[in-house]
Amino acid sequence: MVEGDFKKDMSRRRSGAKGTTPRSEPDVPQILSGVFNDKTTGSPVTLLIPNTNVKSEDYSNLARQPRPGHADFVAYKKYRGFNDYRGGGHFSGRLTAALVAAGVVAKKILGEHISIQAKLIEAGGSRNIEKSIEKAVKDHDSVGGVVECIVQNLPVGLGEPFFDAVESVLSHIIFSIPAIKGIEFGSGFRAATMKGSEHNDMILDESGRTATNHAGGINGGITNGNELVLRVAVKPPSSIGKKQKTLNLDSGQVEELEVKGRHDACIALRVPVVLEAATAIALADLLLIHKSQEI
Q1: Left (φ > 0), alpha (ψ -120 to 50) or beta: where does 246 sit?
Q2: Is the distance from CB of 260 to CB of 136 less than 8 angstroms?
Q3: What structural domains does the chain harbor?
Q4: Fewer beta carbons within 10 Å, N or C terminal of the chain?
Q5: pLDDT digits 0-9 by tens, 29-84
Q6: What pTM was computed for the model?
Q7: Residue 210: helix, strand or coil by DSSP?
Q8: Contact, 159 vs 215, CB < 8 A?
C-alpha cells in the first residue's frame, strides 16, 4: 500500500463539478503508521489528511445563528456552547474524506474480484441531473438526490441473522455519512405495493442465482449470491444563498440569517465514492467474520 493508492477515490470526492463548493483541497492522505515497505504491518494504519484551504471566519455568525436544517443548534445544546462551529468538525461533510480513505483500505481487503460501483441517478426529484443542479445554482438554493450502489461477486453467506444482518451493518455506517436521510435495498419501498408472487425471486441454480432481484441480494440478513443493490436519499445542503429565518441564541429572537462561505448546491454529486467506501468498510468486516467461521 502506497499513498498513490488513494489518489483515484480521493479525487472523485473532491469538489470541482458545477454545483459543488469552490473550496479546493488536495486531499492527499499521508501514511503515518501501519505500513512498511509498501505492505501493511498488522498494526493500525494511521492516515493524516490536512485541511489546507480553511476560512473559519465564514462560520463566525453561525455560533449565535444556527442554520436551519443543519446540526448547529443541536450541537450547541448538546455541548453547552463548547462546540466547534468553524466548519470541518464532527458535523461536517469534510469527514467523508476520512471515510473514503478508509474505504480504499477496505476495498483492498475485499479484493479485485468484488466490485462496488455507485452513481447519482436523480437530483432534485429529476433524472435530468444537470438541469436540476443548474436551476438550484441560479436560484441560490440547493437540491438533494438519490445515489444507487451495486456490489457484484459477493459470496453467499455474508452477514449474521438479526442484529448483524447485512442491511443492519450497512445502514449503521451509511447513516453516519452526513446528509443521508433514507436507505432501501432491492425493490425497497416499492415492495410494499407488490404481491408475494411478484416480489419473490425464483432461484435458478445451485449458486443462488435468481430470475429477478427484488431482494437486492440479501435474504434473512445474509447475502444470497446475487448483486447487492441499495439506494440512499441525500438531503439538500442546509447552507444556501437565500436568506432564511433562524433563532438568535443571544437575544432569543427570530431574525434573518445570511449564510456566507463556500458551499455545495448538491452534495449528492460527491456522495457516490463515499457510499462505495462505507459499503466496502462494512462488507470487509463481514467478509473477515465469514472467513473466520470457515476456518
Answers
A1: beta
A2: no
A3: 3-294 (3.60.150.10)
A4: C
A5: 999 999 999 999 999 999 999 888 777 777 788 889 999 999 999 999 999 998 88
A6: 0.93
A7: strand
A8: no
